[in-house]
Amino acid sequence: QLQLVESGGGLVQPGGSLRLSCVASGAFTNYYTIGWFRQAPGKEREGIACISSVDVSPNYLDSVKDRFTISKDNAKSTVYLQMNSLEPEDTAVYYCNAGSKYWGQGTQVTVSA
Question: pLDDT tens, 38-74?
């Protein structure tokens, strides 16, 4: 099985930046498509970015595509989400997903003045 651990969340002012990390451990850690999801209080969980095992054609939610960048370091089995120009609407718990099957516990991102 695969285990995922997110980190890097916190409190940031509007316009600020954060970099989230998702560290994968277990069998075949670099063979999955990895996605970042988020869920705000009272709202549905939504997919915001994903990257394949061969690093082709990353996909982004329209509302974040010009501000967020997904990348990965295969040697470290880690996927990153660089978030720039953060807005209060980005406040949510951010989750890492692997292969549409495995989930991390999430990391809180709060954007507020």
Answer: 999 999 999 999 998 776 789 999 999 999 999 999 8
Contact 35, 47 (CB under 8 A): yes
HEC profile of the chain: CEEEEEECCEEECCCCCEEEEEEEEECCCCCCCEEEEEECCCCCCEEEEEECCCCCCCEECCCCCCCEEEEEEHHHCEEEEEECCCCHHHCEEEEEEECCCEECCCEEEEECC
- Which tokens sit at 110? 């709060």
Average pLDDT value over all residues in the chain: 93
* Contact partners, residue 55, CB within 8 Å, separation at least 6: 72
Where does the pLDDT of residue 25 fall: very low under 50, low under 70, confident under 90, or very high at 90 and above? very high
Residue 79: exposure state from Cβ atoms within 10 A (0-12, 13-18, ≥19): buried
